[in-house]
Amino acid sequence: MYAAIKRELADVWLGFFVWTGPNRSAAQAARQKGTENFAIIAAAGLPWSTSLASSCGLAFLLGFLSTVRPGAFVQSLKHPASSAALALCLIAVLGVFWADGISWAERFRGLTPMAKLLGIPILIYYFSQSDRGRYVLYAFVASCVILMMYSWVVLYWPGLSIHYKSDQPGIPVKNYIDQSQGFAFCAFALAAVAVHGLRRQQRALAISAATIAAALLANLAFVNVSRTALVYCPVLAVFFAYRYLGRRHFWIACLALVVTIACLWTISSNLQHKVSAAFSEYRAAQKEAGTTSVGQRLELWNKSIELFKTAPVIGHGTGSAKPLLTRDIPKQADSPANTSGNPHNQTLLFAIQWGLLGVLALYAMWGVHLLTFRGEGVVAWIGLVAVVQNILSSLFNSHLSDFYQGWLYVLAVGIAAGTLTRIADPQRGSAALGLNRS
Q1: pLDDT over threshold 50, residue 436
Q2: Domain boundaries along the sequence of the chain
Q3: What average pLDDT score do residues 22-29 get?
Q4: Chain segment 326-365, per-residue pLDDT in tens
Q5: Dihedral (CA of 253, 259, 262, 263) sign
Q6: What is the dihedral angle through the alpha carbons of 377, 184, 201, 246, rounded to the nearest 10 degrees?
Q7: Do 318 and 99 contact (CB within 8 A), yes or no?
Q8: Mean pLDDT of 178-204
C-alpha cells in the first residue's frame, strides 16, 4: 500500500514539474496517466454531482492540452465518429451569426450544450492510445451501484436523501430521469460482460455482472423509473437478444421478454403508476392543454413545429429556442411551458435553431456512431447501447443537449470508439503519444 502511494506521488511530481531532460518520456507518461484519472473521477462523479464532473472535465482538458501531439490529433480527427461530432459543432458555431432578434449572450448560451460534443474527438484520440478506458466504465458502474443501494435506503427512509423530493421516491440525488438513464446503461453494458464471461469460462465475473445488472433493472422496476426508460429498455433488450443469441433462441428470448414485462406489470405498483399516469395525463391534455406533463410536451411540440415552418432550411440560429418558445407560447400563468426553452425533443430543438441542416447533421452523427459500433465484442456493444439509448430517449427529451445524458453519451461513444481504434491498430496509439521507446 505504501509503495503504491509513493509511486502515485512520484507520478504527480513528474507530471507537474518535469518537462525536459532524460525523464521527459516518464513525465509525459505520468501526465497521461493523471489525465486519464480525471476522466475516471468524472465518470464516478457524474451520477452524483454536476460540479464534480464539470471540474474533472476541465482538468482532463488541461491534461489533454499538456500531452497532445498536434499532428497525431489532427490525424485522429479523420475518424468518422470525430468528424460527425465536429460537423454538428461547426453548424452550431455558424448558427451564432445568422441568429436574429436575440442577444449575443443568448447566442453563446446556445453554444454551451453543443460544446460537450468536442469531447468525442478528444476522447477518441486519447483512448486510442490508452488501455485504461475500461476503468472509466468500472468507475461509472461502481458509482451507479452505490447509488442504487442508496436509492433502496431512501425509498423507506426519505429523510436520508441528499436532495429530498416528495414526488420522486427513491431518488437521493439529481432526478429520476438521470438515475434511470445511468442504471439502464450499466445494466445492459454488464449483460454483455456476463455473456462474454460465460463464453470465456470466467464464471465469477459472469455471475457478478449478471447479478448487478439484474439489481439495477429491479430498482427501475420497483423503486422509480422514467417513462422514457420504459421505451428504450425493451428495445435494448431486443437488440441484446439479437446480438448474442441465435435466430431460434432470439424468438424464444423475445417471448420471454414479453412474459417478463407482463409479470413485472402485475407485481410492480411503480410500473403501473408510471404507465397509467401517462395515459391519464394525455386524456387530461385533450380537455385542457398544458395542464399536465404530457400536455406541456404536446404544447411545446406543436409550437416547435410552427417555429420550424417559419425557417425550415437553416432555422432561427443558435440560442433561439428558449427566446422563441417563451416569447410566443400563450401566457398561461400555471404553465411551465412558458419558462421552458426546451421542446423536450432533440430533433425539434435542432430544427428550431438550425432547420433541416441541423436535423440532417444530427441524424448523420447518430448514424455514423451506430455504424462505428456495428462490430462484435463488449466495447462495441457498450458504444451501441449509448447511441441507441440516446436516440430513443431523445424522442421525449433533449438528452444530447442535457448535462447528464449528454456527457454519458460523450464519454461512452468517445472512449468506446477510441478503444476500438486502439484494438484495431495498437501500434498507432503508442506512436501518437510518443511513448515508443528506443
Answers
A1: no
A2: 1-66, 79-114+294-438, 142-287
A3: 61
A4: 875 555 444 444 455 788 899 999 999 999 999 999 999 9
A5: negative
A6: -60
A7: yes
A8: 94
Element (H, E) at 339: none
Residues 6+ apart with CB under 8 A from 22: none
Q: Is the pLDDT of residue 27 over 70?
A: no
In tens, the pLDDT along 221-251 reads 999 898 899 999 999 999 999 998 877 888 8
Rounded Cα–Cα distance for residues 5 and 13 (Å): 12
What residues contact residue 170 under an 8 Å CB cut-off, 6+ apart? 151, 152, 154, 155, 176, 219, 223, 224
| The pLDDT of residue 247 | 78
C-alpha cell at 113: 450544450
**H helical segments located in 200-339:** 203-222, 229-244, 247-267, 269-287, 293-310, 321-328
Is 134 buried (19+), middle (13-18) or exposed (0-12) by CB count in 10 A?
middle
Contact 189, 381 (CB under 8 A): yes
Distance CA 179, CA 404 (A): 9
Contact (Cβ atoms closer than 8 angstroms) between residue 106 and residue 323: yes
Q: What Å distances lie between residue 99 and 104, 323, 338, 359, CA to CA?
A: 9, 11, 21, 17
State the cell numbers at 149: 443501494
Q: What is the pLDDT of residue 13?
A: 41
Among residues 413, 317, 399, the alpha carbon closest in space to that of 365 is found at 413
How many Å apart are CA 25 and CA 367, to the nearest integer? Answer: 39
Question: What count of other Cβ atoms lies within 10 Å of the Cβ of residue 314?
Answer: 16
Burial class (CB in 10 A: 0-12, 13-18, 19+), 343: buried
Instruction: Phi first, then psi: give them for residue 414, nearest 5 degrees.
Output: -65, -45
Cα 130 from Cα 136, distance rounded (Å): 12
Where residue 179 falls among pLDDT bands split at 50, 70, 90?
very high
Is the pTM higher than 0.70? The answer reads yes
Q: How far apart are CA 381 and CA 177, in angstroms?
A: 23
Return the C-alpha cell found at 126: 486519447
| Span 329-339, pLDDT tens digits | 555 444 444 45
The span from the CA of 265 to the CA of 95, in Å, is 46
Q: CA–CA separation, 305 vs 311, rounded Å? A: 10
Q: Which among 290, 280, 50, 271 is positioned nearest to 175, based on CA atoms?
A: 50
Mean pLDDT of 187-201: 93
